[in-house]
Amino acid sequence: MADESELRRMLEREASGAPEPGLDAARLVRRSRSRRLPRQLAAGGALTLAVVGLGVGTVTGVRLLNPPAELSSAGGGAESTDEGAGTLSEPSPEEEDSGGQSGDGAAGGAIDLAPAYKINLCGGMLGVPAEDGLTGVSVEVDFPPAADASGTVRGTVEITNDTGEALRGVMSDIAATTLSQDDVVLWHTPQLDRTLPVDLEPGETTTLDASFEPRVCSPEDEGRSDFPPDLPLVDPGQYDVSVAFDIEREDGVVLQVVSGTEPITLR
Fold this sequence. Notes:
There is one protein chain. The chain is an alpha+beta fold. The chain folds into 2 domains: 4-89, no CATH class; 116-266, Intracellular proteinase inhibitor BsuPI (Immunoglobulin-like, Sandwich). Helices cover 26% and strands 27% of the residues. Strands 2, 4, 5, 6, 7, 9, 10 and 11 form an 8-stranded mixed β-sheet that branches. Strands 1-3-8 form a 3-stranded antiparallel β-sheet, with no helix packed on it. The relative contact order is 0.13. The chain crosses the membrane at residues 41-65.
């Protein structure tokens, strides 16, 4: 559509008798496009903002798994989203082989237990006792209420099968024993390497020997088959003694039993 100035020129040509040129369709299209361009840019800018906004939101959601420094600016949002999402959504070969898990617990969700004598380590915090009924094996620790702090202190552990079914397999021939004070391990049985068969019907009991040295070991002593004989003796006072042991059933399941503590006075 011609504007006012063009109509004026057309009327002047008609009045002067000058030949009237034909309509230039291309020129009219260009003018029409030029008038619509600002509105198109405005609409296009709103659409671009929406896309960039979505890109930034996606980057934020994905990049929370990475250091915050990677969340630089909205300018690279959409490009970063493509790279980050692709990287994070593709499992590693190890995860594919293990069903999405990694590490030692990947195979069937199994977790290897440390041996009973490694539950409590020199200078570490005392292990938490097993909850009542968790293993179906109850324990009664029997040490003298007081003992001389100059030599080996001996006691016994009574084990009762409360599982409701026969308990057959093997177990350590003695209980791993720990001496502690204020929940800090002072000494523990350094190693257990002998076993004996266990065959207990429901309600039946058996007894294990247990003993400890009233001495203080250190983390540097771990890993030895036996602790040095010259470890420092504990001071006279109040202490706690506890035990732990493993029972490996015939089906390969290991029951790890950790007792509570019993007070003992060393003098």
